[in-house]
Amino acid sequence: MKFFIDTANFEEIKEAYSWGIIAGVTTNPSLVAKEKNISFHDRLKEIAELVDGSVSGEVISLEADGMIKEGLELSKIHPNITVKLPMTPAGLTACAALTKEGIKTNVTLIFSANQALLAARAGATYVSPFIGRLDDLGQDGVELIREIAEIFAIHEIPSQIIAASIRHPQHVTQAALAGAHIATTPYKVLTQLFKHPLTDKGIEGFMKDWANKDQ
Ligand code: E4P
C-alpha cells in the first residue's frame, strides 16, 4: 500500500514529501477552502511541481458538461493532475468522457461496493471509499475496502482503491490488510505513524551508552 497525503496545505505536503514516503496528494473543496488567500489552480500547480505522483483536484460543477469542462482545464495545469469527480451519474459520465481523453480520474465519496464497481466501469483510475465517515455512522469502513478489493481481484479490475477519510493509525494498518492500494492520510495521522515509546526509549539508551563508552 502506498501513501498519499490528504491536504491542500503546501507546508504539510513539503514536510511529508521530505520523508520520502509520499506517492501522491488528494485535495477536496473543503481542504482547499481551509487555505487562506490562495488560487486553487496555482496551489495545484505548486503541489504537482513538487510531488512526483498523482495530485487530485476536485471539480465543483454538479452537471456532467461542467465537470468535463473543469476536468479538461484542471488536466492542463500539470501532467500529474488527477481529476476528482463525485460518485453521481453526472460524475460517472464525466469520468468516462475524461478517461477517453486519457485523463486520470478519482471517483470520490464512495460508500458502497456497488458504487466502486460503477466508478471502475466508467474508467476511474482511482476509487475513494471514505472509511472514517462510514465508521461515524456505526458501519464498518474497513470492511468496505475488503469487499471492493475482493471484487476488483475477482474481476481483474485495474482501478486502484484509495482508502480515504482516514482518522487514526489503526485505519492505516487495517486498510493495508484489507487490500487498499493507497491510503490518503492527513498530515497529523502520518506523524502519529512514526511514534512508538520504545523507539524513543531505544534512541535515548543508545545515546546514553555512546556518551559513556570508554575512549
Ligand atoms: C479523500 O480524498 C478526501 O479528501 C478525504 O479523505 C475526506 O476525509 P474526511 O472524511 O476526513 O473529510
Automatic annotation (TrEMBL):
Q: Which SUPFAM superfamilies match?
A: Aldolase (SSF51569)
**Cellular location of this protein?**
Cytoplasm
Please name the pathway.
Carbohydrate degradation; pentose phosphate pathway; D-glyceraldehyde 3-phosphate and beta-D-fructose 6-phosphate from D-ribose 5-phosphate and D-xylulose 5-phosphate (non-oxidative stage): step 2/3
Superkingdom assignment: Bacteria
Q: Which family does it belong to?
A: Belongs to the transaldolase family. Type 3B subfamily.
Q: Which CDD domains match?
A: Transaldolase_FSA
Entry's EC annotation: 2.2.1.2
Swiss-Prot/TrEMBL keywords: Cytoplasm, Pentose shunt, Schiff base, Transferase
Function field: Transaldolase is important for the balance of metabolites in the pentose-phosphate pathway.
Q: Which GO terms describe its cellular component?
A: cytoplasm
Identification of the protein by name: Probable transaldolase
Which organism encodes this protein? Kurthia zopfii
| List of catalytic residues | 84 (schiff-base intermediate with substrate)
Q: In Gene Ontology terms, what is one molecular function of this protein? A: transaldolase activity
What InterPro entries does UniProt report for this protein, alphabetically? Aldolase_TIM, TAL/FSA, Transaldolase_3B, Transaldolase_3B/F6P_aldolase, Transaldolase_AS, TSA/FSA_arc/bac
Alphabetically, which GO biological process terms does the record hold? carbohydrate metabolic process; pentose-phosphate shunt
Checking Gene3D superfamilies in the record gives:
Aldolase class I
- The reaction(s) this protein catalyses: D-sedoheptulose 7-phosphate + D-glyceraldehyde 3-phosphate = D-erythrose 4-phosphate + beta-D-fructose 6-phosphate
